[in-house]
Every structure is written in C-alpha cells, then in structure tokens.
Amino acid sequence: MFVLKIVTDFASAHSLRDYPGDCSRLHGHNWQVEMLVASKVLDDIGMAIDFREIKNQTKVVVKRLDHQYLNDVAPFDKLNPTAENIAKYFYDEVGLLINNQDVRVKEVTIWETLRASVTYSED
C-alpha cells in the first residue's frame, strides 16, 4: 500500500454548542490538516496520485472554511464544529473529489493547536 500525505492549514472561528466550559464562547484556531491518501497501484509513470491533485482538492474544501465562523457554514450550522466533526467532514468531502477505484482518502488528522489533534479514518 502506498500512502501519500499532504499538509495544509486554514484559520477559522467556532463556538462549541452545549460545551460546559470556555470553548462554548467564540474563539479561533489556525487549524492544520493532514490528508493521507492510499493506493495499491501506480500509474504508468509510477505515481499513485499526483501530490498536486491531493493539495488542490483539499484546498477546495479548505476554501469553504477558511476565515469563516464555522457555526454559520453548512454542515456546522447544525452539526457541532468540533475537531472530530471537522476531521470527518474533510474525510468525506475530499473523498468525494478524489476517491476512485484505485485511490482513496485513508485518514485525516486535524490539529486544533500544536498539542491537540484528532484523526478520523474508516479502516
């Protein structure tokens, strides 16, 4: 299995609904996104998928959230914008853009701070 990883980031604010602490108030993060994509096969030039394609498709999703108040952006207008839900959102949305018979999003890690992250996968 070949596993490729790109890293990107975005800035946004959120407030956690029903959270019994400070994070229930408006606050922001400089989020880091680690996108892992897997493939068992390589193409004719020896690539599973071009890193550029992973970056570009991840940036499509990043653009929806960058410099936004996440609580106002679907699906987080209804779904609590926790790091866990954001990780699954990236997994699902980037997957819609790049998954095919040979290539699949394997795992997404969202870093809320340098010391706190969550990883989502379906393996």
Approximate strand percentage = 35-45%
Mean pLDDT: 97
What is the CA-based Rg, rounded?
Answer: 15 Å
Report helical residue fraction: 25-40%
Main beta sheet, described? 5 strands, mixed
Q: How many DSSP helices?
A: 2
Describe the secondary structure blueprint for this structure.
Layout lengths: L1 E13 L12 E13 L11 H15 L2 E2 L13 H16 L4 E11 L2 E6 L2
Parallel strand pairs: 1-3
Antiparallel strand pairs: 1-2, 2-4, 4-5
Helix pairs in contact: 1-2
Question: Mind explaining what this structure looks like?
Answer:
With 123 residues, this protein is of the alpha+beta class. The protein has two helices and five strands, in the order E-E-H-E-H-E-E. A five-stranded mixed β-sheet has the order 3-1-2-4-5. Helix 1 (51-65) packs across helix 2 (83-98). It is elongated.
Distinctive features:
single chain, 123 residues, alpha+beta, 2 helices, 25% helix, elongated
Describe this structure in a few short sentences:
This protein is an alpha+beta fold and 123 residues long. The protein has two helices and five strands, in the order ββαβαββ.
